Amino acid sequence: MKRKHGEDETTAIADESTLDSNSSFSSLGLDARLLQGIAKLNFAHPTLVQAKAIPLALEGKDILARAKTGSGKTAAYLLPILQAILKRKESSPDEKFTSALVLVPTRELAQQVHRTTEKLAAYCAKEIRAVNIAQNVSEQVQQSLLAERPDIVIATPSRALVHSNLSAHVLTSKVTHLVIDEADLVLSYGYDDDLQAVAKALPKGLQTFLMSATLTAEVETLKALFCRSPVILRLEENEAEDGEGVSQFVVKCGEDEKFLLAYVIFKLKLIKGKCIIFVGDIDRCYRLKLFLEQFGIRSCVLNSELPVNSRLHIVDEFNKNVYEIIIATDENEILGDEDEEDEGRELDENEATPHRASKALNDEVKGIEVAVSKMSLKKKRRKVRRDKEYGVSRGIDFQNVACVLNFDLPTTSKSYTHRIGRTARAGKTGMALSFAIPAELFRKHKPTSFSTCGNDEKVLAKIIRHQKKRGKEVKPYHFDMKQVDAFRYRMDDALRAVTRVAIREARTREIRQELLASEKLKRHFEENPEDLIHLRHDGELRAARIQPHLKHVPDYLLPTTGKAVLSSGSLDSTGRGGFVGIRKSSDNRIRKARMKKTGKAGGKSAGAGGRDPLKMFRGGKK
């Protein structure tokens, strides 16, 4: 790959170091208005990456920083850029042009960076304007936004390429700062050609920031393409400053037992706090959601088929504690396995190829698009395209996540590391619980089987080996299956109701609902933001056969000594039994009995045949 700035570069390396306890943002020489924005965000002291990167960036040096997820990399590059823009506008206030281009791999991350920019520049909003052209609007709207010469443009590489071709003089002619956030993911997401083309359109001599959680071969490629003598910061937060981190557990179980344990964990509230459940594909999202619905457990799904506005709203509401459980796919999974002894090395071909082949096969299977509606006359199916710029396992700031549940184990140790990074952020503790299928139990329960689970033992061995190199331990976790088996017949009833037809209908209905809420009601919500309170993403899809008795756990199923005996210990790292804040059922058994009796008095039971005709009524359908 061709270098943009010549071959004679010298690299300064800042090794791991400790942060001066007396450091503050005011000591970095930032504008007073930026300091006010920082104070509004309640940032007391700069993080390690901020304290090291900001002074170097203010000197005009290129920065290549490796710091873990949640360490404050976004503010580390935004603050120097905002400072440079304010300084420029003091000398030439009437000159308008785009000074900074921020490239990110996903639309979700673009929205997050845009919001952080607005918050940091809250007290200088008249002087600085940032736009996000990765959002789901037409090219004409994006062109009009760029025509106003915003100071900062946030985009994915593909979107930046489109507008550099349409209006190069607007987007790239006078850019002085370039940022590539989550640089190790950008090439993994297939943006190679886009970045090559964008690099040709950018002027020479601009200041570059490459921010990444790892220094991989992809980052080295980007460094050669964009940087000139960058300062490389390899930074690790002090473990004592970052809390106890993630407690990691693995449960070896059968394929159907995944659903059984998920039911027991959430219904009996064995996990404390909010949870993100990672599954293998979109169908698994809806299978698990419909399964949990049978027991009155509410959750919302997050995948690439949903409109981008809905995805962003789900993340926002999750961070505001509106939802307790998100079931997410990890479709743009990170390829390759990690080697901490030589993190900057290129992936060994023999090691990478099987994963790439497996991923290519999975992508081919997942590439079959699902029909979501029928045209009234010709009965044609209208297909939904999945968003290639979707990703939740890296970069997105999920707040206060207590547990990451790997319902389906990822195919690489690197992807596992990124998934569990959604918890234990900002000095807090968290837990990662993974289900793994032993080889002898694979394909033993075909209705719940998933193709990649056949390699769980090999992947788990790599995960344990890599975590051990990091000084972490993946501990085995044992449930008392004799006690758990009492719930098995209820699991079987629920799984029988979650058929392929039910999953397809749920998937179709969800997309229709979200498209309506995302597009047709967008302007209404902009004018009436309080109405967003009533827009929920965790409602019951009701595509599966409803079995009300499953929502109640009878006392005879519970162990006489308490639910703690179901497991070998508490699932949270504090040693205490926790809970998921699911809303309690308000059903009144006495009232139910009266209603049932009333129904029989009318000559026919309301529950005859296992169905309530009123509940089964669907408007507009026969």
From TrEMBL:
Keywords: ATP-binding, Helicase, Hydrolase, Nucleotide-binding, Nucleus, Ribosome biogenesis, RNA-binding. Its main location: nucleus. Residues 23-51 form the DEAD-box RNA helicase Q domain. CDD domains: DEADc_DDX56, SF2_C_DEAD. Signal peptide: none annotated. GO terms for biological process: gene expression; ribosome biogenesis. Its EC number is 3.6.4.13. GO terms for molecular function: ATP binding; hydrolase activity; RNA binding; RNA helicase activity. Residues 1-22, 337-358, 577-622 are annotated as: Disordered. One of its GO terms (cellular component) is nucleus. It catalyses: ATP + H2O = ADP + phosphate + H(+). Residues 54-233 form the Helicase ATP-binding domain. The keyword Hydrolase applies. Residues 337-351 have a biased composition (Acidic residues). It holds the Pfam family Helicase_C. InterPro entries: DEAD/DEAH_box_helicase_dom, DEAD_box_RNA_helicase, Helicase_ATP-bd, Helicase_C-like, P-loop_NTPase, RNA_helicase_DEAD_Q_motif. Residues 245-482 form the Helicase C-terminal domain. A motif (Q motif) lies at residues 23-51. Belongs to the DEAD box helicase family. DDX56/DBP9 subfamily. PANTHER family: ATP-DEPENDENT RNA HELICASE RHLE-RELATED (PTHR47959), DEAD-BOX HELICASE 56 (PTHR47959:SF21). This is RNA helicase. It comes from Morchella conica CCBAS932. The lineage of its organism: Eukaryota, Fungi, Dikarya, Ascomycota, Pezizomycotina.
